[in-house]
Amino acid sequence: MVELATDLTVREVAKAAETVLQRPVNVTPDTDIARDLAVDSLALMNIVMELEDRFDLSIPLDRLATVQTVGDLSELINTLRTKA
Amino acid sequence: MGLLDKHLGYRAPLEAIRAVGADPSNVRFEAITSPTEGVLNGRPVILLGTNNYLGLTFDPDCIEASAEAVRQWGTGTTGSRFANGTFKGHAALEQALASFYGRKHAMVFTTGYQANLGTISGLVGRGDHLILDADSHASIYDAAKLSGAEVIRFRHNDPDDLHKRLRRLGDAPGGRLIVVEGIYSMIGDVAPLKEFVEVKREMGGHLLVDEAHSMGVLGEKGRGLAEAAGVEDGVDFIVGTFSKSLGSVGGFLVSDEENFDLLRIVSRPYMFTASLPPAVIASTLSALKRLEEDASLRTRLSANADRLYDGLRDMGYSVGPHASPITAAEMPDQATAVGMWNALLQNGVYLNLAIPPATPENKSLLRSSVSAAHTPEQIDAVLAVFEQLGQEFGLLEGRRRATA
Fold first, then answer.
1. Nearest-CA distance from B212 to chain A in Å?
2. Distance separating alpha carbons of residues B97 and B276, to the nearest angstrom
3. Disulfide: which of B151, B173, B345, B395 matches B390 by Cβ 3.0-4.6 Å?
4. Do A49 and B149 touch (CB under 8 A)?
5. Hey, what domains does chain B have and what are their CATH numbers?
6. Cis omega before residue B277 (within 30°)?
7. Ranges of each domain in chain A
8. Which residues of B touch A62 (CB under 8 A)?
9. C-alpha–C-alpha distance, residues A20 and B361, integer Å
10. Which residues, 6+ apart, have CB-to-CB distance to B7 below 8 Å?
């Protein structure tokens, strides 16, 4: 059940990244956002803004400090959704 | 392994830019001969990228006030505002700023960067919410980090998007501070401030406007966008700088907020740095007086801004949404931007090369800022260079706007 939620979130992260980067991306939970996707801090903030709209959720930027992989980001979103 | 190895990703792009010609990150003027002219590589250049909006850097009264202050008070304060670094002039400047804005309180910081850092980190902290325009200046983002507040961005200049994001916060505990800028520094666009004030009033919270590029530029009295938009009573905090219209360096905050004096003991970027030297304070006071008394500076600035903006737009350059003292011509790619920037320099025009990640939407821009001190002839000379180079670089083919 938890796995399923994460998979769905990972897929949404991929879609948000494609919208912002305007190119197709291939992601798994282990994808390193900065290194593998060549995403700088500004693009990451834009991806987060896109995800906030997709999930109708606030994702405070200060929570990104511990996010390195797509899996980390998905987990953060799932945690915030559970709280909301 | 060196400590700087982690930044090696910047090496190749930097070298590629340096290989084209001059290094835009390391321009050294051999002389500055007026607010609008300098010498670079032995060549006279028109200064079209110095944020010197009112051209007051060589104002005789400002220079005289500054020279007198350095003789009377010495070269520096050698201390913090909190300790030994407040002289009569610092207090007088705060008084003058409060009175100019019609606010109860003012606070002077050592730089504009620190004004944002010190204000924002003093106003919000852990458990509060800081809601920023996505295109905010680096000093606002750095302030956000220093504050420890929960940071949410909204889409640039989009009041509906701000509304949506405030709604999402719901009734979460903690204060809410919304931060926008009067004029955005990269393409010169202006915030829809009236609409932002309406959203703030509906959803609750405080509003801070950074008038760094709009003080002395917008509003009948030169108080900035809040004045021009007629919503000063809806703006809780105004931050600004002395390093643009006022021709020196430093920053400030004005507000009617209760317990304002406590900011002076909780704001670390205010406390843990030396205060501005007396000479800077004196020229700034003098420049503020000139700004207040001489509305013709704004008339000339506005005419020059229109002249450059209309000229570039009519030639077919892609410029911002409306005329403003900042006009940025968008280049098709970074290589063209770097090439054009060098060619402009060689033809006697200095402006700013603005490239990602410092620019919105990863644009490559040739960013210019005009001054009240430019003559129409200087603007025309710049336009002639843009026209010639635009043809050489193939930027204008079939793009000239039909002019009536």
1. 22
2. 15
3. B395
4. no
5. 13-47+295-392 (3.90.1150.10), 58-293 (3.40.640.10)
6. no
7. 2-83
8. 144-145, 148-151
9. 10
10. none
Burial label, B349 (beta-carbon count in 10 A; 0-12, 13-18, 19+): buried
Q: A2-83 domain in CATH 3.90.1150.10?
A: no
CA dist., res. B289 & res. B269, Å (int): 27
One digit per residue, pLDDT tens: chain B, 404 residues? 899 998 898 899 899 999 999 889 889 999 999 999 999 999 999 999 999 999 999 999 999 999 999 999 999 999 999 999 999 999 999 999 999 999 999 999 999 999 999 999 999 999 999 999 999 999 999 999 999 999 999 999 999 999 999 999 999 999 999 999 999 999 999 999 999 999 999 999 999 999 999 999 999 999 999 999 999 999 999 999 999 999 999 999 999 999 999 999 999 999 999 999 999 999 999 999 999 999 999 999 999 999 999 999 999 999 999 999 999 999 999 999 999 999 999 999 999 999 987 788 889 999 999 999 999 999 999 999 999 999 999 999 766 665 54
Q: How many residues does chain A have?
A: 84
Question: Positive or negative, the Cα torsion across A69, A72, A78, A83?
Answer: negative
A61: chain B residues, CB-CB within 8 Å: 144, 151-153
What is the ipTM score, two decimals? 0.90
Report chain A residues whose CB lies below 8 A from the CB of B155.
Answer: 49
Give the CA-trace dihedral at B253, B258, B260, B261, to 10 degrees: 150
The two three-digit tokens of residue B30, written as one number:
């051999």
CA distance A57 to chain B (A): 6
Helix and strand tally (H, E) in chain A?
4, 0
Give exposure, B351-389, as e/b (b: 16+ Cβ within 10 Å): bbbbbbebbbeebbbbbbbbbbbbeeebbebbbebbbeb
Q: β-strand B31-34 against B37-40: which pairing, if any?
A: antiparallel
A3 in contact with B at a CB cutoff of 8 Å?
no
Asked whether the beta carbons of B169 and A58 are under 8 A apart, the reply is: yes
